[in-house]
Amino acid sequence: MILKRIAYSLVAFLAFISFLWLDFYLPQRELALIVGTEVKRVDSDGLVTSRNPADGQVRDVYYISTNRNWDDPTGPIKERVFRNEDTGLWFPFYFKFNSADVQARAKAFEQNKELVVITSYGWRLNMFSMFPNIVTINQATPETSTYSIRRYIGVGLWAAFFVTVTVWMRRRFNKNT
């Protein structure tokens, strides 16, 4: 009985952790209006400033500020900031090498005040100064959808795997009793 509880608890814990991992890395899409773009110089321990001088290799990180209340200008402002960095050949495997081009497109969309669809991954965690990373920016059309098929397929496969594991465990435990 105690072994059964431990096994189910372990599977539930692994399901929770793996779901968080999937939620972070699978792409999500949203409609937004770009209201600002900027470049900041960072090193391994954060933003390079007079209080935090560069103490190693330095790189430029692009940031894109958006506003998501274009449909209700009188409502509360829903601002969101995105990071725009290359992923290169390493994990996550988005093979993004065009962050400067994405930043130029973002600047053009900002100047033209056009609604865009942003595909990104990651979470915005203020406490850790974490920003979601943009993968692509495209102009929105009237029929633009924010559904991400990769996200739904990934979560569907994840759910199918954990349902299969749970059913297998239940059969195994019922067989032994």
From TrEMBL:
Keyword field: Membrane, Transmembrane, Transmembrane helix
Highest rank taxon of the organism: Bacteria
Entry annotated with the keyword Transmembrane helix: yes
Transmembrane domains' residue ranges: 6-26, 149-169
InterPro entries: Phage_phiNM3_A0EWY4 (IPR011088)
Name of this chain's protein: DUF1523 domain-containing protein
Organism from which the protein derives: Thorsellia anophelis DSM 18579
